[in-house]
């Protein structure tokens, strides 16, 4: 393993996700293991431009593997979208003697990293951190598993009150413009219907199916709605439509919102983060750049950043079929 790189920086960018701290910890400790220096960059690309760095060692990351959020904070930086901003970031890194950058974030963060490399030849590696699981090149992004468990817990709680009052609940979940959270958590939560942006089965079919559930004896129902779903203008309009076109149900809405981004990372996400941090640093020390580390069939592998950015994740059709059968 060539060790020309002697100092690596790590930052978190975009929407935070549980597991980011575990990934920061892994990057820092892998650097320590290989006896190279590591700096943490605060507030993503914003802090990179300002040179808001903190020297980190193996002890700096103690006690964070089980913490949600990111100790390095995150931010969305408009200035980094400008060449002047990236120029300042490059100068700050050079001044600090940093020779490689690990970016923990989503596709937007990776786009910035790739442009930065193309302009300055600066080595970059990506670790996919977002609850949406919408990044090509990995079966799991950091935080997805934890978010699923958070949503399932919420569904179970809402089902208690829905069944006590014979109510129909629409529950909106995050996921930006994909339905992975909705589909997986909907199946696990036993939802009667799951609405995702990848499918548009129409309002009448929804009312039809809910009526069938009622006549088959269901006194309450749960409909999981991915926030990117296009079936209705928004979840409240959806509720109104069903309210007006369905007898006998009291209809309520629950928008889970940002709680899906918090919480202690699951065991799966902690292990995934630890593996990704090692893979990212050791790949960089091995001379690699412009890759994202990912999990595929249980193995850590590298996907070129431009493919990770441009690629699209697909809904698992077998899972879709399972959800249809389960709502019988
Ligand atoms: O990308 C993660 C995510 O939580 C999406 O699921 C959600 O749509 C978005 O971030 C919310 O962004 P913000 O935190 O800026 O409101």
Automatic annotation (TrEMBL):
Residues the entry annotates as binding ATP: 15, 76-77, 106-109
Record's keyword annotation contains Ubl conjugation: no
Binding-site positions, ADP: 25-29, 159, 190-192, 218-220
EC number, UniProt record: 2.7.1.11
UniProt keyword Disulfide bond present: no
Entry annotation: catalytic residues: 132
Keyword tags: Allosteric enzyme, ATP-binding, Cytoplasm, Glycolysis, Kinase, Magnesium, Metal-binding, Nucleotide-binding, Transferase
InterPro entries: ATP_PFK, ATP_PFK_prok-type, PFKA_ATP_prok, Phosphofructokinase_CS, Phosphofructokinase_dom, PKF_sf
Location in or out of the cell: Cytoplasm
A molecular-function term among this protein's GO annotations: 6-phosphofructokinase activity
Pfam families: PFK (PF00365)
Reported cofactor(s): Mg(2+)
Domain Phosphofructokinase: 7-283
Pathway assigned in UniProt: Carbohydrate degradation; glycolysis; D-glyceraldehyde 3-phosphate and glycerone phosphate from D-glucose: step 3/4
Residues engaged in binding substrate: 130-132, 167, 174-176, 227, 252, 258-261
Regulation: Allosterically activated by ADP and other diphosphonucleosides, and allosterically inhibited by phosphoenolpyruvate.
GO cellular component, one term: 6-phosphofructokinase complex
Annotated Mg(2+) binding sites: 107
BP GO annotations: canonical glycolysis; fructose 1,6-bisphosphate metabolic process; fructose 6-phosphate metabolic process
Catalytically driven reaction(s): beta-D-fructose 6-phosphate + ATP = beta-D-fructose 1,6-bisphosphate + ADP + H(+)
UniProt function note: Catalyzes the phosphorylation of D-fructose 6-phosphate to fructose 1,6-bisphosphate by ATP, the first committing step of glycolysis.
NCBIfam families, per the entry: PFKA_ATP, PRK03202.1
Xref: HAMAP family: Phosphofructokinase_I_B1 (MF_00339)
Assembly behavior: Homotetramer.
Family: Belongs to the phosphofructokinase type A (PFKA) family. ATP-dependent PFK group I subfamily. Prokaryotic clade 'B1' sub-subfamily.
Name of the protein described by the UniProt record: ATP-dependent 6-phosphofructokinase
Source organism of the structure: Algibacter luteus
Encoding gene (name): pfkA
């Amino acid at each position: 393993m060539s060790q020309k790189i002697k100092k690596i920086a790590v930052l978190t960018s975009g929407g935070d996700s549980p597991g980011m701290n575990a990934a920061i910890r892994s990057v820092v400790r892998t650097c320590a293991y290989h006896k190279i220096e590591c700096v943490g960059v605060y507030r993503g690309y914003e802090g990179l431009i300002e040179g808001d760095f903190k020297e980190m060692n193996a002890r700096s990351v103690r006690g964070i593997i089980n913490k949600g959020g990111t100790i390095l904070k995150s931010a969305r930086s408009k200035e980094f979208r400008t060449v002047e901003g990236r120029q300042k970031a490059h100068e700050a890194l050079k001044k600090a003697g940093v020779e490689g950058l690990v970016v923990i974030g989503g596709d937007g963060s990776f786009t910035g990293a790739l442009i930065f490399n193309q302009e300055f030849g600066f080595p970059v590696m990506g670790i996919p951190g977002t609850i949406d699981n919408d990044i090509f090149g990995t079966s799991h992004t950091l935080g997805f598993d934890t978010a699923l468990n958070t949503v399932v817990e919420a569904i179970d709680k809402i089902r208690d009150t829905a069944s006590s009052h014979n109510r129909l609940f629409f529950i909106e979940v995050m996921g930006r413009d994909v339905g992975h959270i909705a589909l997986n958590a909907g199946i696990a939560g036993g939802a009667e219907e799951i609405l995702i942006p990848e499918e548009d089965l129409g309002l009448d079919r929804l009312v039809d199916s809910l009526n069938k559930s009622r006549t088959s004896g269901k006194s309450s129902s749960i409909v999981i709605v991915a926030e990117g779903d296009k079936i209705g203008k928004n979840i409240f309009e959806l509720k109104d439509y069903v309210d007006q076109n369905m007898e006998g149900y009291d209809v309520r809405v629950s928008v889970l919102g940002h709680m899906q981004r918090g919480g202690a990372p699951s065991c799966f996400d902690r292990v995934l983060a630890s593996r990704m941090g090692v893979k990212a640093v050791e790949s960089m020390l091995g001379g690699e750049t412009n890759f994202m580390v990912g999990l595929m069939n249980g193995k850590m592998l590298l996907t070129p950043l431009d493919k990770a950015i441009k690629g699209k994740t697909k809904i698992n059709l077998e899972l879709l079929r399972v959800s249809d059968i389960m709502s019988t």
